[in-house]
Amino acid sequence: MGNPFKRPMKNMETPRERFVSTLVFGLFIFLFLFFFKPFELAQFDILPLLFITFGFGLVTTFMLFIFNYLLEPLIKKGNWTLGNNILWDLLVASSIGIANFFYVNLVFQQPFVFKYLMFFIWAAILVGSIPVTISYIVTFNRIYKSALKKADIVPEEILWENEVVIRAGNPKNELKFNPKNIIYLCSNDNYVTIVTIKGDTQSKTTIRGTLKSAESELSKNSRFLRCHKCYIVNLNFVEKVSGHNQNMKIRLLPSGTEIPVSRSKADILIKKTDLV
Predict the structure, then answer these.
(1) How many Cβ atoms are within 10 Å of 38's Cβ, its own excluded?
(2) Range of the structural domain that residue 182 is part of
(3) Residues 104, 121: contact at Cβ < 8 Å?
(4) Which class for 57: exposed (0-12), middle (13-18), buried (19 or more C-beta within 10 A)?
(5) Do 209 and 175 meet the contact criterion of CB atoms below 8 Å apart?
(6) Does residue 195 share a domain with residue 84?
(7) Which of 196, 171, 176, 197 is CA-nearest to residue 185?
(8) pTM for the structure as a whole
(9) To 10 degrees, what angle do helices 15-36 and 114-151 make?
């Protein structure tokens, strides 16, 4: 059956959903601590309790923003697995516990005591396990529905012309290529560079024109994808797709060239390559 911890773990949240879930997580911590009063919080009167638990919620939200928006894009690269994600969540929870420990020390002017620090880490992991478990259930449910949806997609009919003429909208250009030899095209101002391969030799040809016109001229060949405003790639040369929707990249054979992917094209790329 395989190791479940090596199972690929995809981020199914949109940027807006990620922002909302971060706020909801912090709100959950505040409400849970305020109403259930664990860890001897019941000894406080209502107003001090409101202040303290609201502070825990703010600290949690602040730490989540740091991890989700500053650290995660730097860490979560390549093939991210369930095991990686569990370790990541434990690190996040532990960091929140440390932050909450210093928050309490600041509010109550308490000295540093290591065993209390470990208690706060344990408490953060324990309380945080509730919303984290819910998020895992939601994520796996979305992955399952996405897999079912993909299973219903009719396999793509791959079409190739024997020869394609690229003018890029400029009548003075007339370059003929076997489309299977084109690795990618990129634009730079009013110029289009066509990168091709023949045997083991890779070459570049630059012509005056627009990428939009070149895209139209390649439209009958189904393996070309306009993955970015400046790039068209031949999906047959895609070696690896890495990153998430907001910072996805393609690595191309044979040179390992990395091409950025627009957020709007990420889902199409995933469906056509199945490499994420």
Answers:
(1) 11
(2) 164-273
(3) no
(4) buried
(5) no
(6) no
(7) 196
(8) 0.55
(9) 140
Q: Is residue 159 part of a domain?
A: no
For the record, the structure tokens of 237 come out as 């040369």
Whether residue 71 is found in the same domain as residue 168: no
Both 231 and 122 in one domain: the answer is: no
Higher pLDDT, 3 or 40: 40
User: Which sign, positive or negative, has the C-alpha torsion 229, 230, 234, 235?
Assistant: negative
Note the pLDDT of residue 125. Answer: 93
Q: Is residue 232 part of a domain?
A: yes
pLDDT at 1 over 50: no
Query: Distance between CA 245 and CA 149 in Å, rounded?
Result: 19
CB 190 within 8 A of CB 208: yes
What's at 247, amino acid-wise? N
Structure-block tokens of residue 27: 């709100």
**H helix or E strand, kind and range, residue 238:** strand 238-242
Q: Are 225 and 273 in contact (CB under 8 A)?
A: no
243: helix, strand or coil: coil
- Residue 70, token pair as written in the block: 């500053």
What DSSP designation does 153 have?
S
